[in-house]
């Protein structure tokens, strides 16, 4: 039972993690700007769940008061968004997270968990299974910022303050803040909706996969793991039986979606390809529980039930681009505290 600060709590992983943390009996302080809406996590609950709307670049010591552990999910969370908003990506993904770790340590928290990404391996030869000791090869701003966040936060580890980096595989599965810009999720939606499964060229690229509930479970596992065994260490998160070449993965998804499906190729050949070893985390006793098929099934069930649809909010890049464009328009047009309805007490009806 710990008091856990989760940043980026309203995001894809956070919206799966917060209920799991609560179910395990923890207290949660959920911090987010809520770019994807405030309804992705439960409403505040006295003494159990505190919801704080704040930009993580503006965290103060007060945000960390009384916290035992931090799970620092906040980020501009994919490669194309990272390229379009490079300065924000460095500020949020690296600077704000290193600063959050320092604030946590100064406030007396004992654990800090950085959910990073296997994408920092970038491109690795197909015959190499990369482990945590291998040289990294971050190809994008997003991956480079993650690597610098790893360096900056690990440097803060000491005997009282445990820092753990989790390099997560590409995530899939249903969560309240849904993302259809992730491989399995996007393939499943296309196949379910139109019978055309979008497949990024050339299909030979290797990618490890991780169910969103297993990602959350690994983070919770690290809250309770033997500190001496994990402090200052990096762990790849996933499992050997969930690593695919994208082409065969597409065939798996196509076979699982209950309709006729054909493959529709898109994009330039993906330069990112990596096979990853999960032995270090398995050595601690952590096991994932869900397969790729489980993710496809639950997404299809949510789509069938009308609980889920593909909206601009489910495509991270599109949503950030829209927010950026709307902000410019609103700043230009807003007058007297509003647009059509304005703050004007003396106005005649
Ligand atoms: N989804 C994946 O496949 C995957 C894989 C590996 C690693 N990761 C990492 O996991 C973390 C979470 O990813 P996700 O898929 O949940 O992303 P997400 O985009 O769904 O969630 C990020 C959350 O951070 C919030 N946020 C962004 N900037 C903020 C700011 N300045 N202040 C406060 N809140 C802000 C957003 O509102 C959003 O709720 C990221 O660090 C990402 O790099 C994700």
- Uncertain runs with pLDDT below 50, 5 residues or more? none
The top level CATH class name of the domain at 3-174 and 207-243 and 272-291:
Alpha Beta
Radius of gyration: 21 Å
Order of helices and strands: EHEEHEHHEEHEEHEEHHEEHEEHHH
> Could you estimate the helical fraction of the residues in percent?
25-40%
Question: What is the average per-residue confidence, as pLDDT, rounded to a whole number?
Answer: 96
- 3D shape: globular
CATH superfamily of the domain at 3-174 and 207-243 and 272-291: NAD(P)-binding Rossmann-like Domain
Bound molecules: nicotinamide-adenine-dinucleotide
Strand coverage percent:
15-25%
Query: Total strand count, please?
Result: 14
Strand-pairing-aware structural class = alpha/beta
- Widest sheet: strand ordering: 3-2-1-4-5-7-11
The CATH topology of the domain at 3-174 and 207-243 and 272-291: Rossmann fold
Q: Count of helices? A: 12
Please identify, by name, the CATH architecture of the domain at 3-174 and 207-243 and 272-291.
3-Layer(aba) Sandwich
Tell me the distance between the termini. Answer: 56 Å
Describe this structure in words.
The protein has helices spanning 12-23, 61-64, 79-84, 86-106, 141-154, 183-194, 212-224, 227-230, 246-256, 279-283, 292-304, 316-333, and strands spanning 3-7, 27-32, 49-53, 69-72, 111-117, 129-130, 162-168, 170-172, 196-200, 206-211, 233-237, 243-245, 262-266, 275-276. With 349 residues, the chain is an alpha/beta fold. It is globular and about 70 Å long. The mean pLDDT is 96. Bound molecules: nicotinamide-adenine-dinucleotide (NAD). Nicotinamide-adenine-dinucleotide is lined by residues 8, 10-14, 32-36, 55-57, 73-75, 77, 92, 115, 117, 168, 170-171, 177, 179, 182, 316. Residues 8, 10-14, 32-36, 55-57, 73-75, 77, 92, 115, 117, 168, 170-171, 177, 179, 182, 316 line the site of nicotinamide-adenine-dinucleotide (NAD).
């Amino acid at each position: 039972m710990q008091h856990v600060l989760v940043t980026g709590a309203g995001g894809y992983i956070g919206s799966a993690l917060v209920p799991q943390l609560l179910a395990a009996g923890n207290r949660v302080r959920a911090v987010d700007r809520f770019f994807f809406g405030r309804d992705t996590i439960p409403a505040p609950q006295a003494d159990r769940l505190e919801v704080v709307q704040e930009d993580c670049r503006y965290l103060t010591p007060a945000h960390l008061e009384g916290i035992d552990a931090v799970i620092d999910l906040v980020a501009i969370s994919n490669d194309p968004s990272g390229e379009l908003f490079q300065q924000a990506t460095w500020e949020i993904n690296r600077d704000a997270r290193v600063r959050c770790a320092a604030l946590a340590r100064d406030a007396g928290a004992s654990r800090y968990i950085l959910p990073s990404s296997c994408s920092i391996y970038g491109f690795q030869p197909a015959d190499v299974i990369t482990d945590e000791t291998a040289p990294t090869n971050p190809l994008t701003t997003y991956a480079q910022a993650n690597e610098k966040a790893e360096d900056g936060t690990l440097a803060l580890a000491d005997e009282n303050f445990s820092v753990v980096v989790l390099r997560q595989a590409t995530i899939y599965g249903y969560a309240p803040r849904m993302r259809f810009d992730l491989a399995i999720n996007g393939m499943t939606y296309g196949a379910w909706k139109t019978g055309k499964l979008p497949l990024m060229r050339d299909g030979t690229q290797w990618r490890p996969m991780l169910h969103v509930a297993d990602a959350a479970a690994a983070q919770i596992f690290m809250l309770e793991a033997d500190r001496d065994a994990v402090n200052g260490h990096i762990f790849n998160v996933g499992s050997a039986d969930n690593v695919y070449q994208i082409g065969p993965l597409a065939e798996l998804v196509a076979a699982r979606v209950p309709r006729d499906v054909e493959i529709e190729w898109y994009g330039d050949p993906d330069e990112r390809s990596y096979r990853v070893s999960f032995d270090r985390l398995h050595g601690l006793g952590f096991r994932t529980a869900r397969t790729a098929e489980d993710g496809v099934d639950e997404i299809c069930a949510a789509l069938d039930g009308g609980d889920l649809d593909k909206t601009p909010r489910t495509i991270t890049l599109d949503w950030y681009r829209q927010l950026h464009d709307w902000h410019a328009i609103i700043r230009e047009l807003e007058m007297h505290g509003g647009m059509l309805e304005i703050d004007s007490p003396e106005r005649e009806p």
